[in-house]
Amino acid sequence: MAVAQKAFEKKVDTSADSDKEMQPKAVYERDFDRRGGKKLENKVAIITGGDSGIGKAVALHFAREGADVAIVYRVHDEDAKETKKLIEEKGKKPLLIKKDLTTEAACKEVIEEVVQKFGKLNIVVNNIAVQYPTKNIEEITEEQLLTTFQTNFFSYFFMTKHAIKHLHDGDTIINTTSVNAYKGNAKLIDYSSTKGAIVAFTRSIAQTLAEKGIRVNAVAPGPVWTPLVTSTFQGITPEEFGKNVPLKRPGQPAEIAPAFVFLASEDSSFITGQVIHPNGGTIVNG
User: What residues act catalytically?
Assistant: First the structure.
């Protein structure tokens, strides 16, 4: 499996999947967001895929609410450093970890590094994802399927597995799924399948951990203007990308991050095994 994955990754250009290359730029914070509060004071959070996109916005919002943040990323050093700088401006010193999370060993190493650095762990945000559009299922190779599931689902499973022993009553796990888990996507079959698996995983592990007081929830964004989108669908405009939702536009990462703050804080103390749907008005009944 490892050999097949490496062979596939050589064919994938990830250089464009970066904040630096985006036009127009994504919005990670709004003016009124910057006021912040202390909803996550004295909490330690780990965010996978936290260098850009939704993960970056979540990292900034968490830091503003008082959390110490560890950001795990795979490729883009410049994006990670820029996110680190913005967090430092909020008075926090984030931990950056460059790691490929497609193996259990890597996930375990990340959890241990975060706990060693901060002395504890309270919030796990499983957010990392890749997507590779195809015209039909015949175009999806074994290598692509493995890469998509190892990144989008296996990492969530193993990060959770190795985080649990460090989590206690009141701590939380938040998984990023997608509107595509509910409505499907003809061009993102394998990606959508991983997002469906994340929903089932969230509901199942929430039941397992409820007796320990550890809450597990998910966020299922609709179209959101991120580097992953602009690198996947090169040349697409915000108007095109968001035209099929009732609000007729994509969301910005800054509009998705507050859902994560809510689920990570005591504001959602009676919520577990659920999914929040910031998707521009699409009704999914799920």
Answer: 191
